[in-house]
Design goal:
Length: 710
């Protein structure tokens, strides 16, 4: 491993802890794999490439007969590692990358130890243990590797290159920088930083570094250029075109505070997508829809560690510890890159980033102890801080592991995998399905997929190239391409009301969902994949009328799919049909509050206020925190003249969901009609803070201001 200083007496304790934690890291990852069976969506995209290669289809995603190979993966290592396994036995690639990731987890801890004990960095032993422990036990450091992705390998080669830069080992540094480029193309920023460090510290060895890096990376560049026509992955082009950057949103130009808030959310423990330091605190991103709180710390643990990282940077500069500059530049450059240049910061992008940031946080703890405590108290304080910090992550592992197991069993295996298998059964070899998720559907169907934003589809990328930014979305792409089949999440189908072409050209042929259970943890989470519907063009004629013993169409036991269909019928004005379908949804699951709420809306449209009130109240019996039902109940009560009851319900809706503008608008209108203009105005203001430019709130403000001026 070429690590120096292992025999130095002053490093004895750190080395012992390093070996123990490296062992713990490997065991935890293997246990996570065995216990949860977790397979991340994107892992299946890359593994399908490697399996296709061994099966004679080329190192590509299936695009149809006669199509040239497509560079449908971002990280070369994410394909090259499983390719080794698939060459041994087709289908072994996914397991092989997990085995490699588990071993890489242990090596990551050891190279973190090597950096921490190096004389140029030299963290106190308790803080070195804190860094190693974080990399060993933090949930996302485990998840993104053991879900079958290259993330753990990327983190490892980053820390290896950092160590070899410090240790002035140019050959090893060049090799690891080449591996960095194979792990993540955006590590190009890091190679420049590391090269600058070499140029500053030992410039005569720079040619060795460059030569070794090119020897590792250049063959791939030449191969990709020859085989795919370009070394730039299609995935990078697709994401750049398909995901709008927040700086392109209208609010960026209209609302100066929007910019400040976006940057603030990016550097603090805000739990939003793109909060780059978030994994430094207890959080959970396993649902794939941003971060969730695991404890009620309001992001303070993350914020404290980010502030400590800033303090550590200042302290290192004040003491002229120039070796820290490479780590500082890495953290600064990638924080700016993720916040300002990456449209959607997926959680696995951040694992190498926070692996570097935790070193700065540890240096900040060291600086704080030096400033505030006497020399005798510092080791104890550092030890207590490190122990408390690591204990927080260890204590949460049973919860996060159990949640990952639930997601795999209830979402991935029960829903998304089944969608893929169904499509593989009913689709012809050269027929196309359009959908947003790619991995499970493509891997298990082995059919052509127009995914969004086109990670493995030239046609989707071409759509994005030829359409303005505001007309690029999943549904816009599907309308343009009109594939034979469409797979939509319940929410995507339910809320695509303006896309009438779906109803005109397609019919539902299957539904897949996790049955609703208010005690099931997946329904207390932001997971968006709990239900899908498959639609086929009306001109499609199935070879059979059944699949797995069930008739084609919405499963009559799938309450949530029926509810989505009923809501869509309701919003299209087909009230009688909506009432019928929503009653079927309630019959399938009487405890599903959303169906009761939507039936209440439909009954209200049928001029049946008593029936609507009964349904809204039933929805609130089932879910007292259901903001939409509170709002709808308040609106009906207001229409019946029950002013106090309406105000109470609208206030409850606001209390349940402060980011829901409609009850604010309804309450503002209700107060304004009763002449309470001064009380009404703040509610319209609140609605506009939640949704700048909301037409109803703006009109309400205008009417109030005009009336008050009179």
């Amino acid at each position: 491993m070429r690590i120096d200083g292992l025999d130095a007496p002053e490093n004895d304790t750190a080395v012992r802890f390093g070996l123990i934690l490296a062992f713990v890291a490997v065991v935890l990852r293997l246990f996570f794999w065995a216990y949860t069976g977790r397979v991340w969506e994107d892992a299946l995209i890359t593994v399908l490439h490697s399996e296709n290669f061994v099966n004679g289809l080329g190192l590509t995603h299936w695009l149809g007969e006669g199509e040239p190979p497509l560079h449908g993966f971002t990280s070369p290592l994410s394909v090259l590692v499983p390719l080794v396994g698939d060459l041994v036995h087709v289908g072994f690639g996914l397991s092989f990358i997990k085995i490699v990731s588990a071993l890489a987890g242990g090596l990551t801890v050891l190279y973190a130890m090597a950096v921490a004990i190096h004389p140029k960095m030299k963290l106190p032993t308790p803080l070195a243990v804190m860094v190693m422990g974080y990399l060993a036990v933090e949930h996302h450091q485990i998840l993104w590797g053991m879900a079958g992705m290259e993330t753990q390998v990327a983190t490892l080669v980053l820390l290896m290159s950092l160590y070899f830069a410090l240790a002035e080992k140019p050959g090893a540094l060049g090799v690891t920088l080449g591996l960095c480029m194979l792990a993540r193309p955006d590590f190009a920023f890091w190679t420049v930083i590391a090269g600058g460090y070499v140029l500053f510290v030992y410039p005569r060895r720079l040619p060795v570094v460059v030569a070794a890096a090119l020897a590792v990376y250049l063959p791939w560049v030449l191969f990709a250029t020859w085989y795919y026509g370009s070394p730039i992955p299609n995935t990078i082009v697709a994401k750049d075109l398909g995901y709008p950057l927040w700086t392109t949103w209208p609010q960026f130009h209209r609302t100066p505070s929007f910019v400040l808030k976006a940057v603030w959310d990016g550097i603090t423990g805000s739990y939003v997508n793109g909060a780059v330091f978030q994994p430094l605190g207890p959080s959970f991103a396993g649902h794939g829809a941003g971060y969730q709180r695991l404890i009620n710390d309001h992001g303070m643990v993350c914020n404290i560690m980010a502030v400590l990282a800033a303090l550590g940077s200042v302290a290192a500069l004040r003491r002229r510890q120039w070796a820290w500059i490479s780590v500082m530049l890495f953290v600064l450059a990638y924080a700016a890159y993720f916040i300002f240049c990456v449209p959607y910061v997926f959680g696995w992008y951040l694992s190498p980033f926070v692996a570097a940031a935790i070193f700065l946080s540890a240096r900040g703890v060291q600086a704080a102890g030096t400033l505030l405590l006497s020399p005798k108290l510092r080791p104890t304080a550092w030890s207590l801080f490190a122990a408390a910090y690591l204990a927080l992550f260890v204590a949460l592992l049973p919860k996060t592991f159990a949640t990952e197991k639930t997601i795999q069993e209830r979402i991935e295996s029960q829903v998304r995998k089944q969608v893929g298998l169904f499509l593989g059964h009913v689709m012809g070899k050269n027929e196309v399905v359009g959908t947003e998720p790619l991995g499970y559907i493509s891997y298990y169907s082995r059919r052509i997929v127009y995914d969004w934003p086109g990670l493995c589809s030239r046609k989707v990328v071409e759509f994005s190239r030829t359409h303005p930014r505001e007309q690029r979305s999943l549904l816009d792409m599907l309308k343009c391409c009109q594939p034979e089949f469409i797979a939509l999440r319940h929410a995507e189908y339910q809320n695509s009301l303006s896309h009438t072409w779906i109803d005109e050209n397609y019919r539902i042929i299957a539904s897949f969902e996790v049955p609703y259970d208010k005690n099931d943890p997946v329904f207390r989470s932001p997971n968006i994949d709990t239900g899908f519907m498959v639609l086929a063009r009306k001109t499609w004629h199935p070879g059979a009328t059944e699949y797995a013993g069930e008739s084609l169409g919405i499963n009559p036991g799938h309450a949530r799919a029926l509810n989505s269909q009923g809501y869509r019928l309701l919003k299209r004005g087909q009230i009688a049909e909506a009432v019928s379908v929503l009653n079927m949804s309630i019959a399938a699951c009487p405890d599903f509050p959303e169906a009761h709420n939507n039936l209440g809306l439909a009954l209200g449209d049928q001029q049946n206020p008593s029936g609507a009130l009964a349904q809204f109240r039933r929805a609130l019996e089932l879910d007292p925190d259901y903001a939409l039902a509170h709002n709808n109940l308040g609106a009906v009560l207001a229409g019946q003249g029950d002013y106090e009851g309406a105000v109470k319900q609208l206030q409850e809706a606001i209390h349940c969901d402060a980011d829901y503008p409609e009850p604010q608008i309804n309450l503002g209108n209700l107060l304004a009609r009763r002449g309470k203009l001064a009380e009404a105005r703040p509610h319209f203001e609140a609605a506009l803070r939640v949704e700048p430019g909301n037409r109803e709130a703006t009109e309400g403000m205008r009417r109030i201001d005009a009336a008050m001026s009179r």
